[in-house]
Input
Amino acid sequence: MAKQLEKALSDAIKARKRIIGTKQITSTMKDSKLVVISKSVPTLSAKKIEKTAQDNSVPLVHFNDTSIMLGKLCGLPFRVSAISLSALSNANVQAIIKEYERK
Output
């Protein structure tokens, strides 16, 4: 499992510096440093998030597991199909992206 992403997610949850949900993310993308979407997100919603992220120059990570697993990784007792993190340093964002490029 991606350790950098796991730590970033748990820190964001604790600090309440995150947005959860596809609709909420698309409307608040400009405040995001990184967006993570699970493979459970429907194709149309995923494409909309990808386009919005690209338009706002926000890095996007495709989490290669279900929304249930993303929720568990966040330490939350419910499904998380997409999460936006707003309190990451640029170094952490780059480390997470590199970690996912290796997979």
User: Anything to note?
Assistant: Residues 3-101 form a domain with the 60s Ribosomal Protein L30; Chain: A; fold (CATH 3.30.1330.30). The two ends are 10 Å apart (CA to CA).
